[in-house]
Structures
1.
Amino acid sequence: MQGRNALVYAAVQRIPRGRVATYGQIAQMVGLGGLARQVGYALNALPARTAVPWHRVINARGQISLRRVIGAEIEQRIRLEAEGVRFNAAGRVSLADFGWVAGQAQVRRRGRRRPSRGSR
DNA sequence: GCAATGACGCTCT
DNA sequence: CAGAGCGCCATTG
């Protein structure tokens, strides 16, 4: 356990309830640049029972990243839906609607605010 | 110490 | 929009 991991966990805990963040977002937040993979690796080292809301972290596609254990994917989705996060038919989350923007505690999301990036 | 693997992301097709 | 390829770095055998 390095201080880097603790930094990642701290950033994840800052994610508001009912909102999700991407691995790359967390990576940039803790100063890892675009090393999203290391964020995922750090979360992988997380104990089974933890106060860190790891389920609020998804990939840039707005989809839940599968782990070695299949059941985890379902658990993550259930926990997110319990917080109000909605999944579309493809099983993906609209980052434009539920994506957490640092510094923006509450987003009103009146229509699409950031069409530049698209949902690609 | 080298090689393979992985909770990812971006770009091209 | 979906799939495939390449790159990034830490952990593990």
Note: The mean pLDDT of chain A is 85.
2.
Amino acid sequence: MGARLSRAFFASPVLEVAPDLLGCVLTSGSVAVRITEVEAYQGLDDPASHAFRGPTPRTEVMFGPPGFLYVYFTYGMHWCANLVCGPDGTASAVLLRAGEVIGGADVARERRPACKADRDLARGPARLASALGLTGVDSGLDLCAPGSPLTVRSGSTVDTALVRNGPRVGIRVATERPWRFWLDGEPTVSTFRPGALRKRGDSE
DNA sequence: AGGACGATTAACT
DNA sequence: GTTAATCGTCCTC
């Protein structure tokens, strides 16, 4: 397997790091996931970013140095994992949207009992976080520290011609920014779901 | 103190 | 194709 990704790797501008993360491998215990789909969130310049309105206890880690893990809770039941990227203080991060489980599938299946096909073990951001066993207690982890329970390594070489990009999923603002990146032809890439499902206090 | 809503998923028809 | 589930976070009193 490849080398551990360095702090310097994560410190490049988030729009450069995001596509470069495709094909890299996340490892947590025995579970290993090859990244096939990500989204970039560009901190204070991006209305769709959790960091857009400034730091809060939840988003504090995004405002620190790159190479740290940001995990948030959503829809009352799901955790989603991000890698803080870009120069220190830019509050940018890459959402891990989908991946292929390439190791420890038995453990991943135990964590995702509702999952039928193996290709769905880490297909979708909350599924990916679940397969890796990531929750809020893991937010703030230094991914570059020796002994980190979650590591990110370069994978086998990715054909850059397979990298695609387009609109981000599930957001209601800044939908025109094509900051979702994925590997064409990968069965683990989540299906595109445009814009927001507005169901509750529907104001239109 | 109260309320709206979400970087979603699973289970339906 | 549709929709319920479920609660932390943040904004507005």
Note: The mean pLDDT of chain A is 94.
3.
Amino acid sequence: MAIALPKTKRGESSRAVILQAALDLFQERGYEATTMRAIADRAGVSLGSSYHYFPSKEHLVLEFYRHTHELHAEAVRPLLSRERDLAARLRGTMRAVIITCEPFHAVAGSIFSTVANPSSPLNPFGGTARPLRDEVVALYAEVVSGSDARIASDIAEMLPLTLWLYQMGILYFWIFDRSPGRLRTLEVIDETTDLIVRLISLANLPVLRGSRKRVLSLMKAIVE
Amino acid sequence: MAIALPKTKRGESSRAVILQAALDLFQERGYEATTMRAIADRAGVSLGSSYHYFPSKEHLVLEFYRHTHELHAEAVRPLLSRERDLAARLRGTMRAVIITCEPFHAVAGSIFSTVANPSSPLNPFGGTARPLRDEVVALYAEVVSGSDARIASDIAEMLPLTLWLYQMGILYFWIFDRSPGRLRTLEVIDETTDLIVRLISLANLPVLRGSRKRVLSLMKAIVE
DNA sequence: GCTTCAACTTGAACATGTTCAAATCAAATC
DNA sequence: GATTTGATTTGAACATGTTCAAGTTGAAGC
């Protein structure tokens, strides 16, 4: 249960080697099939040592999640600095998500469920994983703000969080996708990103003004 | 792993007593805090006996889930045979969900995550839990079909499944709701059910015709 | 060089989900 | 009533996440 940041060179190296072993094994065998003993073995430390640096197996998953996010953020950087069209930015970002995660597809199910568990410290809605979630939301804020789309401020305010939620939905679909090359997920991404951009522009219609206000204030209330 | 339906009176009674013990303990202590040994103890059977009737602890949760659904279906029956207004039917049905589940609120998190786990046999998107999901979807089909709302057939086709998904979302929100009397969830239900009904009528607008077709055909494609 | 002390490491021990071979039971058959 | 046979029951054994008290290490202060 102790949250011990390494205080010595030796400690830092131990933590790093344990983490690397865990990332490798999660990717090779998945979450459940990776035992804490196997992680300790591959890292060349004792079982107890792992618990000195990571309070639980779930906390190691959080690091896995963070690692994936960093890969993703790096992958979309060129696109986000070049492209200005919102639909293209969003589509590219979503495609990059599933391309980045593709090596972990077989094991993603168990990892996703760990993260979605409301009673887990890893749940992004509140707890240890909150800072990481905020980073991902910030990425989507950049997707929006760096585009040349003119978006009403009330919508722009809620959009990043909504897109993060949307990404979660896409990932959940992708986990179940057994199609070759994950083509179905790619199609769904193309279609939904287009729809989202279209919906944003439709939201300016006078008939929709009322519902739009209600939806947005509801969302704001939900976020607290 | 064996799926053994009881073949004798004795077997039937054993299965029933184990199930009852499990339901009680889940409600009293939650999923994780309930051990298989505790279930066997309270049921007055040995540990191994439980595994003769239920392949795993998760399968006992499925029964818990089914039990809750039956309580809910019973609770909304009067409303559904009396009320004809769609918004009122939907609102009442959703309110009944969280009222029915209220006794399990403290333990709902761990149960929900078990069900949402894509690699679990309990996942409603495909596996053992599929029949139960179909029952819940059928309930929402009745909510729609028993109303006096005139709904275009392409929408009506996808609506029950969508409402089931919506119910899942509300439950997820409810799990995190710490407000007294779960008032916030009730407010969200009132607001969202209204919005849904409004959206259904808006979908007939000529401007929305295109998006509507695209959304519906996308949903149909996702369901397979 | 010696002492001290916090950081680090270790492996045994525990709790719990699951498996399984053996024992027990009870109904059908003779 | 004895035998057979399949259903049921049992508890020991195993795997694995987690805890913890005890041991080891190494640098700072003397």
Note: The interface with chain A takes residues 32, 109-110, 112-113, 116-120, 125-126, 172-173, 175-176, 184, 187-188, 191-192, 195, 198-199, 202, 205, 207-208, 211, 214-215, 218, 221-222 of chain B (CB under 8 Å).
4.
Amino acid sequence: MPEGHSVHRIARQFARSFVGPPVQVSSPQGRFAQGAARLDGHAIVESRAVGKQMFLEFDHHLWLRVHLGMYGAWDFAGDIVVDALSPAERGGRVTGDRVVGANEDSPWSIGAPRRTRLRMAESEKLQPELQEWPPAPVGAVRVRLLTPVAVADLRGPTACEVQTAEEVDATIAKLGPDPLVDGPAGEDVFVENVRKRNVAIGQLLMDQEVVAGIGNVYRAELLFRARLDPYRPGKDVPVELLRELWRDWSYLLGVGVETGQMLTMDGLTGEDLDRAKASRDDRHWVYHRTGEPCRVCGTPIAMAEMAGRNLYWCPKDQT
DNA sequence: CATCGATGTTGAG
DNA sequence: TCAACCTCGATGG
């Protein structure tokens, strides 16, 4: 799944393109038909992301809560604004933060939505232009949000439900701090959440009640950047190291939200940066690099299962 | 074209 | 602790 950065980007996409006009809400697949009926025709007034969860508030004080889980994705189409993508993903069509040229040969009438299509999941990419408006749903679309100029299709989510404001509050209350929600104040909460647990720090970083938004990639990379042994119990990690971990997570999350990619290796410039953006395998210190030489000391990167997820680390540098 | 694995969570046992 | 959820890119034939 998308880790925290992509969910914040998706929330931003909704804020830009869906807040305002009344929204037709439907469930082409049928599994969300009842929920869709409760939202249909209302306007979206706010879009929020907390950790890996996204919340859309409608004008009658009901919310749509979405968690993408492992395979969930949003497909946006129509007159939407697209953030800068990497060279591999942009296909030469993005200038600044607008897609240009998409309608230059368009037979569409003036005022029709642009035909841009953008898929937002764990990665983002522009897709072939639309041929019709509104586009026919493809596959199992759990929920479709349609305005006069933009459409968003959700497929494969772990969670998709209507919540009251109280239920939204309760959901968020169970989550640990998110740097983009709680700001620097989240640091003390994070430190306390970790220090009171006799559980491996590698496991605590993945626990959404301890800190929200970190997934398997950021977990491995944060631990390497801190040169921290994933198996050290939370209560034994020095407070100052935990503060550095929180600040590094805040930093990496910001980079992820701005670039749309999990760029966890600092100091890359020029061709090295382009290579990291183009290839997932050249992008990380330890994630998915089992047996490869550590980029710092050359020791083969280790991999083991921790609480059902693959953990990657350098057994020499991380102590 | 078939198979595998994945950036995640939930609920059953 | 494990299967289920349900999608798709990567990989191998």
Note: Chain A has two domains: 4-171, 176-313.
